[in-house]
Structures are given as C-alpha cells and as structure tokens.
Amino acid sequence: WQTENGVLLPSLQSALPFLDLHGTPRLEFHQSVFDELREKLLERVSAIALEGKVEERYKKLEDLLEKSFSLVKMPSIQPVVMCVMKHLPKVPEKKLKLVMADKDLYKACAVEVKRQIWQDNQALFGDEVSPLLKQYILEKENILFSNDISVLHNFFSPSPKTRRQGEVVQKLTQMIGKNVKLYDMVLQFLRTLFLRTRNVHYCTLRAELLMSLHDLEISEICNVDPCHKFTWCLDACIREKFVDNKRARELQGFLDGVKKGQEQVLGDLSMILCDPFAINTLALSTIRHLQDLIAQDTLPRESPDLLLLLRMLSLGQGAWDMIDSQVFKEPKMEAELITKFLPMLMSFVVDDHTFNVDQKLPSEEKGPIPYPSTIPEAFTKFLQENRIACEIGLYYILHITKQRNKNTFLRLLPALVETFSDLAFSDIFLHLLTGNLTLLGDEFALEEFCTSLFDGFFLTACSRKENVHRHVLRLLLHLHHKVAPAKLESLQKALEPTKQSGEAVKELYNQLTEKLELRKPSPAEVTETPSMELPLPTVPTPASR
C-alpha cells in the first residue's frame, strides 16, 4: 500500500531509509512534499489566470474548480479551491450559494468572491458594512470630544488625503473594488442613515469614499459617478481651506451644468456640500471675502464670488430636506441675507476698527468711548430663523475669538443662546469654540468674562443637552487653573452630574474634581501660613551700612 500510494520516484526509495535513521516520521516527509506541491499549484493557478486567451484561461480554471470543489472543506485543499474561485470573474451561481450557506467557507473566501456574493445579496452586504459605518461615526465623535483642546490641532486639521487613509475608508474601498453595484449600495446606505439620523459625518464618508477610489484611479466607478469632478475640485479647496476664484468658477460650472431631467444629481451634490469639511471651507472663505469687501468699500450683493459661496452653503445646508422631500431643485436664497444680514456683519467689523482707532486718538474732555455693547435685534432674529445666516454668524464668532477679540465676542455672545436648530450648541461649533477660547485664557480670571461665557451661554443649555455639559467640562479641564477660585467653585456645583447624566459626563467631572483636589493646598500648609506673616525684625544688610 505504501509503495502504491507513495511518491513514485525510483531515486527516492533508496533515500528514504536516511530519514528513518534521523528519526523523521514518513508523515512529516509526505506533509512537506504535499505543502510544496500545494504552493506550486497555487502559483500555477495565479499564472493561468493571466496567460492565454480570456475564454481559454477561464475555461481551465472552471474545469479545475469543478474537479476540486468537492474537497473544499478539507483544510489542506481549501486554499487551492479558494484561489481558483478568487481568479474567476464569475464563479458559477451554484458554487456561490454553497459558499454563502456555510459560515466557515464564507469567512475563508477572498474578497473578490465575496463581492460576487454581495452584489446579489444586499442584506448580507449591509451586515458587513454596518459595523464599519458605526465605527466611522464613533471615531468622528471621539475627535470632537477629545480632551486635547488646541487651536492648532482641531477636528478640521487633517488633510483630506490623510483622512482617506483611515481604516474604515480603506476597508470600504477594498470591499467595493471596481464593482459599481456595491458602490451604489454603500451610497444608498449612507443616504438612508443620513436621513434617519441627520448625522452629517455620513456626508463626509460619501465624499471620502469617492476620493479614495479616485486616488486608486478606479475609472469604472469615478467615470459613472456624476459628482466625481465636482468632488475632486471641492477636495482641492478643502485642502487649501479656501475657495479661490479659479476653482469657484469651476464649481459654478458644475452647478450650472446640471441638465433638465438630471436634477437628481443635486441630491448627491448637496450631500457632498453638507460634509462639515466642505461647510467649514465655504464659511471660512465667506468670512475672508467679507473682510476683502470692507477693504474695497463694496457691498456683498456686488460680489459674484461671495454669492456663489452662499449658493453652495445653501445647497449643502438644504441636503437633508432635499433628499427627504425628493424635490431636487436648489433652495431659494433669501434676499435679506445678502442685503441686510451680511452688511450688518460687516458693520460689526467696522465698529471694531472705529473703536480701535478711537483708543489711539488723544482723549478729550468727554473721556474714553465705551465699546458698543448692544446688538441689533435683527441680528439675533437672523441667527434664529435663517440657517445660512446662523452658520456664517457662528463662523464670524469663531473668527473673532481666534483673533483674541474679547470685546466683540462678549457683545455677540448673547445672540448664541437661541439659534437656528440650536446650531450654537452643536458639537462641531463647540469643539472649535473651546479650542479658540484657549487663546483668551487670561480673560478667565475676570468675573465679567466668566459670567457672560458660562452663566450667559454654556449653562443655559447644560441641563438639556449632554453634549454641551461635556464640552464645558473639557474646557474647564484645560483652563481650570486660569479661573478665579470662587467662580470655579460655583461652576463645579453647577456642573455636577445628575442621575440621568451619561458615563462620559461623570468621567469628565471626576477628572476635573481630581485636578481641583490636587490644586488645593494641604491642611498642613494652611496652618503654617499665619506664622509666615509675623513681622520679621529688620536686620541691616552689609550693603546698607
């Protein structure tokens, strides 16, 4: 039996006794020969997949699969069967069903085979994609609530290319490959989740996924996605954090080029413009444009570039409504936004310049001119009722905070208590605001500043919005040493978690309490303090004699 089933090489028969002398079992020898042959076979299968005419090579692989598939559950043969299936562009339906029905086989097969299973099985593909999407949202939220508060490294710091290297985007890109059907499925999942949750991070993933496929030059998908060139151009603007005139014209060309009957593409474009990274770029560019207009003595309505930025902001902010209603047309821009709100914003900048110039002039009898403290009622109304005005207003406040402009900040802060859909209490705005407030660190020692910021703004929402509670605790963890002790004590009481508070709030509050405990002087030091204040006898020093 051994002779009949062994390796039939005449020269081998005389060599085998050597192995016996070394105590090497025949099983070990045959196993190593088997492994070697399997490796050669795997190499050959990969070679067949690349050589000869297409029909011939696939015919060979199909024959090989037919012969070997019955052994697919044998661990030693399984890699060969899987390799053959991997190289077949279309595995026979019957075989795919058998693989799908067996959990272990499904787990073991290559992503190329899984793609063929997924494209006709949306539910199974959804089960694979769902954990990745959850992970992605969690990663974004962890960045927004990170304990590292910095004006230099914030949520928007990583470049688009760096973000696309993230684990989730890379995994999804690999799962999709060049399969347009799977790409469409992922986009459908993202639209559905965005509609269900209103979470804008799904819009970011929509753009990142397309650009990740663009990086790999997968033309099969990029050429059929009508948003590709628009997203590519916008991606370059996000990288620069500014929309320059040349790119603005390109973007306008794409928007104007939406033909009759193709309006549905506006739904996708709006989702790409709803990405927080796009909104951030458009809003920063708007603030820069407004400053330029002040320098040129020009009104907002006379600037086509500014009007285009507002048009894109409006399209991005209207994404949810558009996808929800399935009415694909650009939202109408309110004339008052351009004729009243933006000039009002520019007047704040002018007030600021005027005040600074006044301060430098020699003061006369009437004494120093106070900084304007009131805000027009119309400004507050715009922030409450107009989404675009609210977004631009919030970015203007971030801008002045970054410039350490305490006066304007305190003047406009009361307007943030009530804003459109509570945008001033959104995670992205609070993440950026807390970062910028570190630049005003020294102001936290002043009672007036702390009262306006904490009592007048943050604490108005802490009890009803847990995310605000978390952001205030993050800020205090970073700046507690700058706050006056009496104020810190009252804030500590006000921020104490309730029974309903989540674990994250409790954890942050405990961290803050620990930090404050460490700062308190020990009882021993306190009792010694009075003795230090006893008058010391004056001893003449050698120098004073």
Strand and helix layout:
Elements lengths: L1 H4 L4 H12 L4 H23 L5 H15 L9 H10 L5 H9 L1 H6 L2 H8 L3 H23 L15 H5 L2 H10 L3 H18 L3 H15 L3 H4 L5 H13 L4 H12 L8 H9 L2 H20 L8 H14 L1 H7 L9 H26 L16 H9 L1 H16 L3 H7 L14 H11 L9 H16 L3 H14 L5 H10 L8 H17 L3 H10 L13
Order of helices and strands: HHHHHHHHHHHHHHHHHHHHHHHHHHHHHH
Radius of gyration, rounded? 33 Å
Fraction of residues in helix: 55-70%
The protein's oligomeric status is single chain
- Total strand segments: 0
What fraction of the residues are assigned to beta strands by DSSP? Answer: under 5%
Give the overall form.
elongated
Number of helices: 30
Q: Provide the residue-averaged pLDDT.
A: 89
Biggest pleated-sheet summary: none
Decide which structural class fits the backbone: mainly alpha
CA(first)-CA(last) distance: 118 Å
Residue windows where pLDDT falls under 50 for at least 5 positions: 524-537
Labels describing this entry:
545 residues; mainly alpha; 68% helix; COBRA1; NELFB factor
Can you characterise this structure?
The protein is mostly helical and 545 residues long. The chain is built from 30 helices and no strands. The longest helix has 26 residues, at 335-360. The relative contact order is 0.05.
